[in-house]
Amino acid sequence: MQTRRQFLFTLIAGLFVSGTEASLKSFQPSDYVDISNKLSSLVTNKNSALFIGKAYQSLPPQKTTDIPQEIFSLLQRINLTQKEFIKLEKPLVLQKIKNAIEQDFHTGNVELVNGWLLSKTEVKLCHVLSLIWAT
Amino acid sequence: MLSNSFSIEEKSIVEADICIVGAGCAGITLATELNHSTLKVILLESGSLEYDDKTQSLYEGENISINPFKLENTRLRYFGGSTNHWGGMCHPLDETDFLAREDIPYPGWPIRLNDLIPYYHRAQSICQLGPFVYDDENYWRQQINFSPLPISGNLLETAFFQYSPPTRFGEVYLEALKKSTNVDVILNANVLELETSNDANNITQVRVANLNGKIFFVKAKKFVLSAGGLETPRLLLLSNKVQKNGLGNQYDLLGRYYMDHLSAWGGSLQFITDQSNFPWYFKIRNIVKNLGNMEVGALLTPTADLMKKEGLTNFRILLLPTEEERGIDSAKLITHELTSGHIPDNFGGHLKNVLSELDSVANVAYKSLFHTNNDLFEIHKKNDSTAITKVNLDLNLEQLPNRESRVSLSTDRDIFDQNRIKLDWRTSEADNKTARRALEIFAMECGKYNLGRVYIPDTINEQNIAFGISSHHMGATRMASSASEGVVDENCRVHGIGNLFIASSSVFPTAGWANPTLTITALSVRLADHLKSIFS
Lengths: 135, 536
Ligand SMILES: Cc1cc2nc3c(=O)[nH]c(=O)nc-3n(C[C@H](O)[C@H](O)[C@H](O)COP(=O)(O)OP(=O)(O)OC[C@H]3O[C@@H](n4cnc5c(N)ncnc54)[C@H](O)[C@@H]3O)c2cc1C
What we know:
The structure holds 2 protein chains of 2 kinds.
Chain A: H1 4-17, H2 22-25, H3 29-42, H4 46-57, H5 67-77, H6 82-87, H7 90-107, E1 110-113, E2 116-119, H8 120-134
Helix pairs in contact in A: 1-3, 4-8, 5-8
Chain B: E1 2-4, E2 13-21, H1 25-34, E3 41-44, H2 53-56, E4 61-63, E5 89-90, H3 113-126, H4 137-144, E6 156-163, H5 169-172, H6 174-179, E7 183-187, E8 190-196, E9 203-209, E10 215-225, H7 231-238, E11 262-271, H8 280-283, E12 286-288, E13 294-302, H9 304-310, E14 315-321, H10 324-339, H11 347-357, H12 360-367, E15 390-397, E16 406-413, E17 419-424, H13 429-448, E18 452-455, H14 458-461, E19 500-502, H15 517-535
Helix pairs in contact in B: 1-15, 3-15, 10-11
The complex binds flavin-adenine dinucleotide.
The site of flavin-adenine dinucleotide has 40 residues of chain B, from helix 1, strand 5, strand 8, helix 7 and helix 15.
């Protein structure tokens, strides 16, 4: 059976072959794993993130399941490159996320997920995590 | 003086300067204010000093509204009226409530908040409240060490309400009226009709009956209808011998624009930051020791700017603490009772508990989403186990005046062979819009200031929200300076009739968010002064 790390490598390699967006090309598989691990470490409760992530996934219109693309757009939301995200200490990353979330509420970038009015950044975070964990 | 219609002779005529119909807070306030004057006043009350089924059944009616509540369950027909079961929550109307609003296609009140302020002051003590101070945060900061929720204040602001004990008007003011030498309270006296001069410009007398079938009449120089927000328009509609459409109905306005405060469960707020710095919002009843242990509560209302900018009506959001267990307990109880063939007591209440806790899985999930060893989204639980992590949102809205929402006469008849009420209470799309925006704005504010996340129930996003009632019967004899826009004028006199006045929430042309009784009382004090000035 493939380990999770192996699976992710395969997935990313596949994406590069099929030619994803140019911006994602700088996305190194090793970075990807580090990013995934770091993202996972931000939350305490896997079930919770899965709950919101899956609920979002099931809402119309159809959502992408392209993990790198979702990670990329999450990082864009919090204004960090992959390298910065990996290097930055966890409290600072959390502060970035917190700022992005508050900004979302100020600018109306919100999403109704199963009745909860959430910031698009937090929804994206949960979505990414639910996709990562599903692998 | 206190007397009973049973001791009045059949077909006799009783005379007075002022005849008041109905002894609820409005009628009792008027009578009390006119006590010790030189005027002879008669206060006619349908019921006696105690509740009885037969009299109460006169309040039954036909309800063809989407919400088919029983009319007799929302009011009480005996001395003291509905103050025999009111909750005592009081707040004056806001300044904006009196003004014409661009998005409300009807004129505002023909009076302003300032015109009512002196009467609100007097109404405060009649309703056994504290000083006339409501939304002054600094004042409450001193009294109860208040500090506001950390939200901007540009969209939502804190309002404070006071609790009346609640004053049971029938008990508190009975002795004074019993001892009165100029006010005669006649119990078991059901007014059936207002009789007019041939030109219908004046009321000549009212026809009164008791449940034994005895009829008598009261002649007076002035008449005041204070029979409640539903019965007052009914009496005007029933008085149709000369004016075929009823009195004060030249422009087909009588009975129209009926409003209630629209109530809805607005979902819940899951805190993600420490809420212990502002407990006043969740306690509902905060005791103010310096002010004789009076009770106040805090809630959120829209700013005047927000209402104007977005074309919203007024609303209030009350934060009610909830425990997850309450829903589970209720579910267990319902299952147990139903399986043993019983309908549980307070079935509706238990069902509400269950429904409001259905989101608890989502709620718990959200609560523990993030690490608690950093301050992002951490719930700072207090050491004591009663720390609140979640509150229910109790939403109550001002209803937009709606011409099609109306009180009319049914073909069903009561034991006096009088047409009962037909209520067709209708809300509109504007009400749905206000409900949705109110919760969205609140949810966004909670997000912006990292207070928590809000769950908005599907019921709020349905095409037609099934609003609950508040039993605040308003609007069916609305106040306006011209007869083409309202039933009564700024002095609460029925347009076109020289000697007929109304003291009731039925005169409210718009409802604001505030519960109505303080305003009914203030308007009644004002009317009493006006009547005194007419006679002097
Ligand atoms: C459960 C409940 C809780 C409430 N809580 C609050 C609250 O917290 N705060 C608040 O501000 N308001 C509250 N209200 C509303 C409040 O009770 C009413 O606004 C207020 O009591 C109305 O007073 P009124 O004098 O206008 O009418 P009523 O109290 O209805 O009095 C009318 C009187 O007229 C008599 N009458 C009727 N028809 C006739 C007739 N034909 N002839 C002679 N007499 C007649 C009746 O018997 C009655 O005594 C509540 C209402 C309910 C039902």
